[in-house]
Amino acid sequence: MRLKRTSGILANLLTFALVTGGTALASETRQWRFQALLDGDPIGYHMFELRQDSGGQVLSSEAEFQVKFMFVTAYDYQHQATERWNANCLDSLGSVTNDNGDAFEVAGTADNGAFVVYNGNKRAELPSCVMSFAYWNPAMLEQSRLLNVQDGRYVDVQIKREATESFRLGTESVRAHRYSLNAEDLDITLWYSVDDYEWLGLESATDKGYILRYERLEPTAVLGQRATLVAQAQQ
User: Fold this and answer.
1) For residue 6, what pLDDT band results from cuts at 50, 70 and 90?
2) How far apart are CA 82 and CA 145, in angstroms?
3) What count of other Cβ atoms lies within 10 Å of the Cβ of residue 56?
4) 194-217: per-residue pLDDT in tens?
5) Distance, CA of 103 to CA of 179 (rounded, Å)
6) Chain-wide mean pLDDT for the chain?
7) What digits encode the pLDDT tens for the residues 74-110?
8) What Rg, from alpha-carbon coordinates, does the chain have?
9) Could you give phi then psi for residue 17, rounded to 5 degrees?
10) Which of 30, 56, 160, 175 yields a CA-CA distance of 20 to 30 A from 230?
11) CA 138/CA 13 separation, integer angstroms
12) How far apart are the first and last CA of the chain?
């Protein structure tokens, strides 16, 4: 199954994504850096870096969360992934995740008209053009299935624009489109700027009922988050 044909506003935004992902990225690197908060308390960071090389676009991402209760680590999470993209289709991926002691290692590659995913001893053959949960790319908002690069699952999703509203970004307020993304075990809210569909933030309820929220940060703030987590782990 190919990616759905875009229409309306997202057709224009896809053109924008392709242009910025190609010509512009040849001379610049785009970054999305977020502080992660759980019910308003900082627990770590998630950062993404998109760059252009001779083979297409390469996205590197890194996340680290640590939740403590009474000086005891109640939840620990580390995730690293590299995704190579050809336009809006994954060309390859590799990820390593520690989800509170549960280890995942996923690899995928385009091969003979399919995208083949390996998760441990499991092999899955997916359609030739697959997208992951690529929040940074507005083309994701028109998809009906997405690949979870943490565990290798290819899941049905329902994505809907809910409203246009004011969104707090640092010390400023900007106009943003709010989207809902729902899947079997996911309930995510996403915000994108009205002007250029820049990804601004994310919010999701955990299975314990807590609210996980991503807030945009400056690069130096992300480095501070990493240093804090390292210091906590050494205590």
Assistant:
1) very low
2) 20
3) 16
4) 989 999 999 999 888 899 999 998
5) 31
6) 84
7) 999 999 999 999 989 999 999 999 999 999 999 999 9
8) 18
9) -65, -40
10) 30
11) 7
12) 50
Give the pLDDT band (50/70/90) at residue 218.
Answer: low
Residue range 12-36, pLDDT digits in tens: 344 344 434 433 444 478 999 999 9
The residues pairing with 118 across neighbouring beta strands, listed in sequence order, are 107, 123
pTM of the model: 0.81
Cβ contacts of 27 within 8 Å, gap of 6 or more: none
Q: Which residues contact 85 (CB under 8 A, 6 or more apart)?
A: 21, 56, 57, 58, 59, 91
Helix (H) or strand (E) holding 19: helix 9-22
Residue with tokens 């994504």: 17
**Residue 132 in contact with residue 155, Cβ under 8 Å?**
no
Q: Which amino acid is at 175?
A: R
Confidence band, pLDDT 50/70/90 cuts, at residue 172? confident
The predicted pLDDT at position 235 comes to: 45
| CA-wise closest residue to 19 among 61, 52, 60 | 52
Nearest by Cα to 146 from 205, 105, 186: 186
Neighbours of 10 (CB within 10 A): 19
3-state secondary structure (DSSP) of residue 220: helix
Q: For residue 222, which of 75, 38, 64 has the smallest C-alpha distance? A: 64
Phi, psi dihedrals of residue 14, rounded to the nearest 5°? -65, -40
Q: Are 53 and 17 in contact (CB under 8 A)?
A: no
CA neighbours within 13 Å on the CB side: how many for 67?
A: 14
